[in-house]
Amino acid sequence: MIQFEHRPGILDLGWGHPRPGLLPVQEWAAAGAVAAREFGWRQLTYGSAAGPAPLVEWLSARLRTAAGRTFVTGGASHGLALVASLLAGRDDVILVDSPTYHLAFRILADTGARLMRAPADAAGADPDALTRMLATLRAEGRRVPLLYLVPTFANPTGRSLPLDRRRALVALAQRSGLTLLEDDTYRELGYDGPAPPSLWDLAGGDGVVRLGTFAKTVAPGLRLGWVNAAPPLIARLTALGYVDSGGGVNHAVATTMSCFVASGAYDRHVAVIRAEYRAQRDALVAALRPHLPVTAPGGGWFLWVALPPGLAATRLLARAERRGTSFVPGSRFYVDGAGGADRIRLSFSHLAPADLTEAAARLGAALADSR
Ligand SMILES: Cc1ncc(COP(=O)(O)O)c(C=O)c1O
After folding, report:
1. How many angstroms separate the alpha carbon of residue 153 from the centre of ligand 1?
2. Which of 363, 322, 362, 371 is nearest to 344 (CA)?
3. Among protein residues, the one whose CA lies closest to atom 12 of ligand 1
4. Is residue 220 lining ligand 1, measured as CB closer than 6 Å?
5. Residue 28: C-alpha distances to residues 35, 50, 258, 261, 280 (Å)
6. Is 100 in the pocket of ligand 1 (CB under 6 A)?
7. How far is CA 64 from the centre of its chain?
8. Residue 369 and residue 371: Cα distance in Å, rounded?
9. Which residue in 3, 106, 98 sits closest to 304, CA to CA?
10. Which listed residue, of 2, 270, 296, 332, carries a Cα 20 to 30 Å from 67's Cα?
11. Residue 226's beta-bridge partner residues?
12. What confidence tens digit (pLDDT) does each residue in 78-132 have?
């Protein structure tokens, strides 16, 4: 029925899923009733190619994006697959940040392109080293159309790329023709202040494609997101054969979302979950501090934690599971697997504060077993 598998006895910090009790079941049902009344049969027929106007207009206003630059998708993963399939192909090189969202690797690899790790340091993608790498690859005759990154409240690190690097990456993209594929999934989930400006905003839409989603702010089961791109790419998306045949992606859900946002339910819900996820972050950070050096991320769903010297994440994982908790080992987030052996990703999104505190105690016990 659902993707999450509960393993009895395990308080799992591995899943980047919402806390079930925070999903807006009643509010969504209410929006569904309003949408049925408001749109009638128009909600149940084929939708317009780029998405229903009420939702596209709300997105454009909210994200301060000009008309003609939004295409509604079935989530960020879908947007990623569509954009990558249009911009990259066999024998191309797609650069990916390191570490970065591991499930993007398979989506990007489906294009047939070769994935390579983009240079990065503790602050994130390194524009100078990237400039050199790009020149070398192109001198070898490789086509390098894309760099994929999650610059804001990232998965897995929780960190945000500094402003000077954002500007330098945008300048590199605009002079080199490399497209920055900005996965902006966590933008709305800032806990200590607003998110930094997106690459998309800094670039004025030139050289950047942005992926957005309602998966983290409303619900992943809706399968609803969007792509922001320059009009020629939006035109290619709307002209795709399956859009021509099937109409706008996920039309009924997109129209319901237009009612959800128009009623104020979206803003109310995001305010609630921001407070809840902030409390979950704080609970996990506080409970881990006696055991591990943790820094609270400014947003998103994840802690990226360095293990004591000499302790490999995979060795700790086996011990953690014996103690009744789990996590994702850091190496999964490096496309070449070379890195992150001494890091772990802990998600604070899925469990309530009391369970997070207990999971941290179990992890502490597993660390003590490892000493
Ligand atoms: C960075 C990032 N991008 C995309 C996704 C998936 O988004 P969607 O459910 O909208 O496909 C996730 C979910 O974990 C994510 O962390």
Report:
1. 12
2. 363
3. 185
4. yes
5. 10, 23, 11, 10, 24
6. no
7. 20
8. 6
9. 98
10. 270
11. 72, 212
12. 999 999 999 999 999 999 999 999 999 999 999 999 999 999 999 999 999 999 9
Cα 169 to Cα 133: distance, rounded to the nearest angstrom: 13
**Counting every residue, how long is the chain?**
371
183 lines ligand 1 (CB under 6 A): yes
Query: How many angstroms from the chain centroid is the CA of residue 115?
Result: 18
The residue type of 278 is R
CATH architecture of 11-16+266-370: Alpha-Beta Complex (3.90)
Both tokens assigned to 286: 């506080």
Q: Which CATH architecture has domain 25-262?
A: 3-Layer(aba) Sandwich (3.40)
Centre of ligand 1 from the C-alpha of residue 187, in Å: 12
Whether the per-residue pLDDT at 371 is higher than 90: the answer is no
- CA-CA distances (angstroms) from residue 287 to 18, 159, 193, 225? 20, 20, 23, 34
CA separation (Å) from 105 to 11, 50, 187, 211, 335? 27, 26, 21, 15, 7
**Boundaries of every domain in the chain:** 11-16+266-370, 25-262
The Å distance, Cα 254 to ligand 1 centre, comes to: 18
Number of H helices, E strands in the chain: 13, 14
Q: Is 364 in the pocket of ligand 1 (CB under 6 A)?
A: no
75 CB less than 6 Å from ligand 1?
yes
Fill in the DSSP letter of residue 348.
-
Average pLDDT over residues 149-154: 98
The string of pLDDT tens digits covering residues 198-214 is 999 999 989 999 999 99
Position in ligand 1 atom list of the atom nearest CA 17: 14
CA angle 208–210–211, rounded 5-degree value: 155
Closest residue by Cα to residue 331 from 310, 312, 351: 312
Task: Output the pLDDT for position 127.
Answer: 98
With tokens 């330098």, the residue in question is: 168
Whole-number Å distance, alpha carbon 185 to ligand 1 midpoint, is 6
Q: Which amino acid is at 53?
A: A
Confidence at residue 102, expressed as pLDDT on a 0 to 100 scale: 98
